[in-house]
Amino acid sequence: MAEAVFVNDARVMSKGQVTIPKKVRAALGIDTGDRVTFIVDGGNVRVVNSAIYALQRFQEQMKGEAAKAGLFSEDDVAEWITNSRREEASE
Q1: Which residues pair with 48 in a beta bridge?
Q2: Is the pLDDT of residue 91 over 90?
Q3: Distance set, CA 22 to CA 10, 14, 28 (Å)
Q4: 43-60 pLDDT tens trace
Q5: Confidence category of residue 13, pLDDT binned at 50, 70, 90
Q6: Which residues 6+ apart lie within 8 Å of 70 measured at CB?
Q7: Residue 43 and residue 53: Cα distance in Å, rounded?
Q8: 61-89, pLDDT tens digit by residue?
Q9: Quick one: average pLDDT of 21-26?
């Protein structure tokens, strides 16, 4: 899927609040009540969907852990889950 590229402006209000433009909310998959994360890098700020950002961070942190645990395929994962459930049931 190609990423949307566009520029949009918003006015900062007296309390520092900014309304995220509709087009930007749609591009980020942000709905009413969702949280956003601000990532400041030098003079640049990125606004990202917090849920997606958290998942991406988790994936980065877990990269390579499956291989360390001997899980190389979906079948390996399914077998691990089955065995774990059996162990829990026997306790």
Answers
A1: 37
A2: no
A3: 11, 21, 10
A4: 999 999 999 999 999 999
A5: very high
A6: 76
A7: 20
A8: 999 998 898 999 999 999 999 999 999 88
A9: 92
Residue with tokens 């691990």: 80
Write out the two tokens for 88: 């829990």
Nearest to 22 by CA among 31, 34, 14, 13: 31
Q: What angle do CA 33, 18, 15 make, to 5 degrees?
A: 105
pTM of the model: 0.61
* Cα-based distances in Å from 53 to 24, 34, 88: 16, 12, 32
- Token duo for residue 49: 């969907």
Instruction: Locate 39 and state its tokens.
Output: 């990532």
At 61, is the secondary structure helix, strand, or coil? helix
Find all residues with CB under 8 Å of 31, minimum gap 6, and list them. 25
Sign of dihedral through CA atoms 11, 16, 21, 22?
negative
CA distance 55 to 87: 28
